[in-house]
C-alpha cells in the first residue's frame, strides 16, 4: 500500500503529523509523507489518520505486487512439451 498527501487539498492542520509522526511530517505549512515511508501497511493509526484528515488530503492506494526476488532458489530445468 502506498500513502500520499495531495498538497492541493492539504490546508496544513498537521493532524497527520500529530497522529503518525513516524510516517508524516509538517513541512512549509503542509503535511507530507516522510521520505522512505511511502510504502505503508494497514497500520490502524495510519488508517485513522487518513479517516481523520480534515481536508481529506491523505490517500492510500494499492501498490502493484511484484514477486520477491529469490536468489536462494535454484533455477529449474525446462520441462519437455507434453504431447
Description:
The model is unreliable at 66-70 (pLDDT under 50). The strands form two sheets. Strands 1-4 form a two-stranded antiparallel sheet. The chain has a two-stranded antiparallel ribbon with strand order 2-3. By secondary structure, the protein is of the alpha+beta class. It is built from two helices and four strands; from the N terminus they run βαββαβ. 17% of the residues lie in helices and 19% in strands.
Q: Which short descriptors sum up this protein?
A:
two-stranded antiparallel ribbon; 83 residues; 17% helix; alpha+beta
Question: How would the global form be characterised?
Answer: elongated
Overall pLDDT score:
84
Helix percent band:
10-25%
Number of helices: 2
Oligomer: single chain
End-to-end Cα distance, whole Å, is: 43 Å
Strand order of the largest sheet: 1-4
Cα-atom radius of gyration: 20 Å
* SS content category: alpha+beta
What string, H for helix and E for strand, traces the elements in order?
EHEEHE
Model regions low in confidence, pLDDT < 50 over at least 5 residues: 66-70
- Beta strand %: 15-25%
For the sheet with most strands, the description reads: 2 strands, antiparallel
User: How many strands?
Assistant: 4
Amino acid at each position: 500500500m502506498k500513502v500520499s498527501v495531495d498538497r492541493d487539498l492539504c490546508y496544513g492542520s498537521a493532524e497527520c503529523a500529530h497522529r503518525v509522526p513516524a510516517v508524516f511530517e509538517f513541512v512549509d505549512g503542509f503535511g507530507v509523507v516522510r521520505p522512505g515511508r511511502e510504502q505503508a501497511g494497514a497500520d490502524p493509526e495510519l488508517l485513522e489518520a487518513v479517516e481523520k484528515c480534515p481536508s481529506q488530503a491523505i490517500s492510500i492506494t494499492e501498490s502493484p505486487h511484484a514477486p520477491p526476488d529469490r536468489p536462494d532458489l535454484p533455477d529449474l530445468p525446462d520441462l519437455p512439451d507434453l504431447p
